[in-house]
Amino acid sequence: MSEYKMDQPVGASPLDRGVQGIIGEPLNRVEGRRKVAGDVPYAADHKVEGKLAVGVAICSTIGFGRVKGFDTSKAEAMPGVLAAIVDDPRIPRETAGFSDEKLVTGNDRVDSYGQSLGVVVAETFEQARAAANAVKVEYDPGEGRFDAGAGRGGARPLGDEGMVPDTTVGDIDAAMASAPHTLDRTYETPSHAHAAMEPHAAIAVWEGDSLTVYTSIQITSGAKKKLVNTLGLGSDKARIVSPYIGGGFGGKGGLGTECVLAAIAAKRIGRPVKLVITRQQLFHLVYRRSDTVQRMRLACDADGRLTAFGQDSIVSQNDGRPFYEPVPLGSLALYAGANRSFTTKAYTLNIPHCGSVRAPGEAVGILGVECAMDEMAEQLGMDPVEFRKLNEPEKDLTRNRPFSERQLVQCMEEGARRFGWERRNAKPLQEREGEWWIGRGMAAAIRVNMLTNAQARLRIEPGGKVVVETDMTDIGTGSYTILSQIAGEILGMPIESVEVRLGDSLFPAAFGSGGSMGAASSGSAVALAAEDAVAELAARMGTSVKDLTLKDGHAIAGNRRVPVGDLVAQKTIETTGTIKPGAMAKQYDQAAYGAHFVEVAVSGVTGETRIRKVTSVFAAGRILNAKTARSQAIGGIIWGIGEALTEEAVTDPRYGNFANNDLAEYHVPVHADIPHLDVTFLPELDDKTNPLKIKGIGELGIAGIGAAVNNAIYNATGVRVYEFPITLDKVL
Ligand code: MOS
């Protein structure tokens, strides 16, 4: 059993040998054909024994207050209804959560609009939905704080409470007071909702006092602990199964209401229960991204060198929740400047609480930084790329530590070349095609790189089939494929003979998918397990690892070439790999970088923005699969374009609900909104990150792109927008 702690730079990576040549190749997803054929079970598709009943959540129709009582008599008398459950003290008040502790429970109180108050179970979905609507709830409404912005004045400093502790270096006020060039601007972003394509869903099955929940979740072992604690079960009495997931993005990071309600209902009626959260319910039953206010302060000397670089933010959260949007996370080390300030304050909103949404921190925080950098470059009369290159720091000046690999400048240079940046006219309102004003803008991208504890088990079975098992999930990112590539590469096996099994809490714990650290963490664990298997194969060949070549399903040593299947014919090889983060994470500032270049056309008649061209260049360590990596990048870019132009969860200040709680009114880009996206990954190996020398990429693409769009809109129209999304009215 191999265990490796990232305490020093890795020397040779198991992937460096590259004999098979499948690492980095743009291979199709190993499960892709089955997915498009409808042949894999998503959460609501699993076939279970027994007659499945259907649950529908009863959700609150006020935003804040007490529940005085329920009347379920009408609902219970309706056709097909099996139970209307409002009396179980374990009904969650918290919609979802990451930690191991139990979900906040108790339906005597309403903390936010749309919170679950109970569950109705019936023979069909329609019967359950009708009955859920017929449950009468008597409320004693309280005075909730629903109005985003109204409480910002009284926001309290978070100090060390947030994910990014408040940090100041030097004296930013003095630097701002004395510099020849200063910029002090405030940017605002609204609440964002999760909208994964597959809705949250669960099927709960009890066998005696043992519970299995089939669901759609990013982190199975964490969810299992939370489920056990919420329901009060023995730790060996629950299993979470989540093999295929139609998008996660953080919203499926922690255990959701649906799992608990389905489990309570299934126990009550003695049958398996399926519960799917409807799209409209999801807007309130999955945590949102906080609204943010970001005060950007920049000061430069006469040559354009930053002397001050600060981002002070305000975020919101519902009462008693530990998560705060870490706005400055990616900003801390992005640019130079001896005087620095990064602080966060929080105020209370009694609306659905905040949690992880793709790239917590950078997805919104880089908008403020990169819009401010564009405006400062203009003030200095400098090209935005040149201004950023001039202020490339030699180390992380906030935490005073070196970078691992950082190719931000190379990304900007290559992006500018591919895009044709030299065609940009620095002056706005210079290029016009009919009613359309044409503009070009750019921005940097950054996402912190992390590693977490992960374990994987690997077997080479008689016949030579390789089986990999870990509770890592594939949320649509390509985990099955890259883990197959890693095992196949190291063992010299074609990936068709590797079977990767994921998303079951019975498998070795690998944290799961989240924080862009899934590939690095579970991938390293698989590589370590595979390295142990190589050692065992060498022993069975009577040779050393050094003198063994594994290729095309064969072990080769000297003049002998033996099928791997033969070496395991008598005895299966089984190994386990464990990766642990170590000193490298503290000693080095680790991040993936990129640069976005955008061309827009803005209608002088309607103010509508059309994206005409996007060129993005990233540097993110070794790329395991060029196709799945590009998919991650373009997914992030498209989301970021929506964030820039349309995305906004609008609260009704009277009730605390989101008024636009469906995909007809919560606008995300569609195909017609997006041109071809030119995406490039630069060659890079980072030996400080993990044994694979890779970095996380899932959340990189969304960072910065919205600022590039905003900067391009300014270049087209001469209008600077400080409040996202950049809707038509703000541009005209
Ligand atoms: Mo991510 S927002 O950590 O899934």
Automatic annotation (TrEMBL):
<dbReference type="InterPro" id="IPR046867">
    <property type="entry name" value="AldOxase/xan_DH_MoCoBD2"/>
</dbReference>
<dbReference type="Pfam" id="PF02738">
    <property type="entry name" value="MoCoBD_1"/>
</dbReference>
<protein>
    <submittedName>
        <fullName>Periplasmic aromatic aldehyde oxidoreductase, molybdenum binding subunit YagR</fullName>
    </submittedName>
</protein>
<dbReference type="InterPro" id="IPR016208">
    <property type="entry name" value="Ald_Oxase/xanthine_DH-like"/>
</dbReference>
<dbReference type="Pfam" id="PF01315">
    <property type="entry name" value="Ald_Xan_dh_C"/>
</dbReference>
<dbReference type="GO" id="GO:0016491">
    <property type="term" value="F:oxidoreductase activity"/>
</dbReference>
<dbReference type="InterPro" id="IPR037165">
    <property type="entry name" value="AldOxase/xan_DH_Mopterin-bd_sf"/>
</dbReference>
<dbReference type="InterPro" id="IPR000674">
    <property type="entry name" value="Ald_Oxase/Xan_DH_a/b"/>
</dbReference>
<dbReference type="InterPro" id="IPR008274">
    <property type="entry name" value="AldOxase/xan_DH_MoCoBD1"/>
</dbReference>
<feature type="domain" description="Aldehyde oxidase/xanthine dehydrogenase a/b hammerhead">
    <location>
        <begin position="37"/>
        <end position="143"/>
    </location>
</feature>
<dbReference type="GO" id="GO:0005506">
    <property type="term" value="F:iron ion binding"/>
</dbReference>
<dbReference type="InterPro" id="IPR036856">
    <property type="entry name" value="Ald_Oxase/Xan_DH_a/b_sf"/>
</dbReference>
<dbReference type="Pfam" id="PF20256">
    <property type="entry name" value="MoCoBD_2"/>
</dbReference>
